[in-house]
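COURSE: Structural Biology Practicum
ASSIGNMENT: Worksheet 4, Part C
STUDENT ID: 0417
INSTRUCTIONS: Below are two proteins. For each, the amino acid sequence is given first, followed by its structure token string. Answer the questions at the end about the second protein only.

PROTEIN I
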Amino acid sequence: MSVTDWNRSGDWFLEQFGVLIQRMKESRQERRAVVEKYEQEISAREEAVRHKTDSVNKKLNKMKQNGLKVVTDGDD
């Protein structure tokens, strides 16, 4: 193999390696974007569940207090 062919081959391999590295970088960025999207969705759902749970707990506590008032008022 001549020196010119050797250099061309080396350049070709470097180009291919560069393309491969670029694809790996883009793939990694896409995966990170997908993960971030799902993390945001999970966070939003968790917040909604927490809000609903707090609301239900408040209502249950109010019902308990009202029930205690009914029971204690009847004992007089």
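PROTEIN II
(use this one for the questions)
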Amino acid sequence: MIEDKKIVEIKNLSKSYTMGGETVKALDEVSFVVNRGDFIAIIGPSGSGKSTLMNMIGCLDVPDSGDYFLDGKNVFTLKNSQLADVRNTKVGFIFQSFNLLSKHTAFENVELPLIYRGYNGSKRKEIVISALKKVGLADRASHRPTELSGGQQQRVAIARALAGNPPILLADEPTGALDSKTGLEVMNLIKNLNKQGHTIILITHDKMIAGQAKRVITIQDGKISERKEAVIH
């Protein structure tokens, strides 16, 4: 059997919210495909719908209508317990604010999702060390977040997302809390991970960051208004 190239297929997603007595359409019939090994940036200003779309991709929210196939499954037909399993095994999250536990070491932060997935101790150690090596922080495994720079903290967060090798890495403004030099280093790391075969979906409002992806999807007022190939690599 030939493996389907599509890892994500989104069809006619719509989502509305009521704010101040008015109905706001956050997503309006959004459709696109992400293939295995893609590096896609979704760009839009505040209020464009990109955060809502990110929550859909990360299985953190459900639409009013439409379908979302992730790794061959229509996730919006799944029960809450099944959705939680999808979030835990299919999507590696990279957040702007790192979301590291301050009392835990880098090793322990990366290890935590593997505990939830039921890996035994020796297997967890193997995966964590491998993930930390990928981001160049094997020698910082015993350091806590307060003992690491912002860039190093984001690298730990990326290692945590990599642990267990989920099909998708979903990065929400991954350089937003970093200075420009450190942000560039993190983007170079993300691009290298993509070259190694990882599928990456990056959410941003920054054109320079988006331009480093292979594909750029622009969202405005809940609609995909432009699709183009990135021009900066």
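ANSWER KEY EXCERPT:
Q1: The mean pLDDT is 90.
Q2: The domain at 6-229 is CATH 3.40.50.300 (Rossmann fold).
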